[in-house]
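Example record for the data management plan.
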Amino acid sequence: MAQKGMMVILSAPSGCGKDTVFREIQKVRSDVCESISATTRTPRDGEQNGVNYYFHSKEEFEEMIENDEFLEYVSYAGKYYGTPAAPAKRMIESGKICFLIIERVGAQKVMKRCPDAVSIFLMPPDMETLKKRLIKRNTESDEAIKSRMKIAEDEVKCASLFEYTVVNNELSKAVEEINEILNNELKKRNM
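Corresponding structural encoding:
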C-alpha cells in the first residue's frame, strides 16, 4: 500500500529560520516538498512562474478567491498572496509531505480549514537572539527591525495554538526534532 502524504504547516516569526530549517529537512528526507504560493506581485529578476510563485493578475486571483481555490490568502501592501489548494492536494495524494511555510494568520486559517494538517511553530530561543538574527541579516532598517520584533512578540504568544512547538536554538536539533514529529505523524496516519 502506498504511503499517505500529509500537510505540514510551519510558521514562525520573521528571522526564526523557517526556510533554513525546511532546506535542511529536504536534505534528510526525499518525501518532503514545499507548497508554492500564488501572488499578484510582479516577478523579481530570476523568479519563474510555477517555481518561485504562481504569478496571477489581480482579476485572476480574485476569481480564484471567488471559486474557493485557496487554503488561505491575504492582501498585503496592495498585493494578494495565497496558498492554492489544488497543487498541495496533489502532492499529498502522491504520498508527499507538503510543507506550507506561512505566517501565523495564514497558518491559523489553514488549521481551521484542514484540521488534519500537522502544525509546527518554530520559536526563537529568546527575543534577544531573534533581534540579533534580524540585525545580522543586514536587510532592514532599525525601524523595520523594531516593527518585526513587535510582530514577533505577538506571534510567540500564539504558539500554543499549534500542535507542536520547536525551539530553533541549534539548527541540527530543530531539524532532528521536526524529523521525529514527521515520522511519528506518518506512523499514526499509515497504521
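Summary line stored alongside the record: Strands lie at 6-11, 32-34, 38-39, 54-55, 70-76, 79-84, 97-101, 118-123, 164-167.
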